Amino acid sequence: MDSNYQPTQPQGGRIMDTFKSVMMRILAVIAAESLGVIGAGSLVGIEVWQAGVLAGALGAMKVIEALARFYLADGSLTSEEINEAFAKVDAKKGE
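Given the sequence above, the corresponding structure tokens read:
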């Protein structure tokens, strides 16, 4: 066996790793967006949990829409495209 041999991860493994990473980041978007509006919802008469769910869902939908548009463009998603999709909802990123 060649001493420089390094086993590579099968294609399916990389896809699953990317999928897990994207899903965890979407959960983080939901949490960040939800926590940002919990107090504001009560000011306009919306239940706290409803405001959180709505804000989290809208944040996740922004990311999913961006990912879908990148995928439609060329049939693949690069790590740069994934990062750009999440940057669209990351308010701190622009500061």
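The helical segments are 11-35, 38-43, 48-74, 79-87. Try to locate this feature in the token string yourself.
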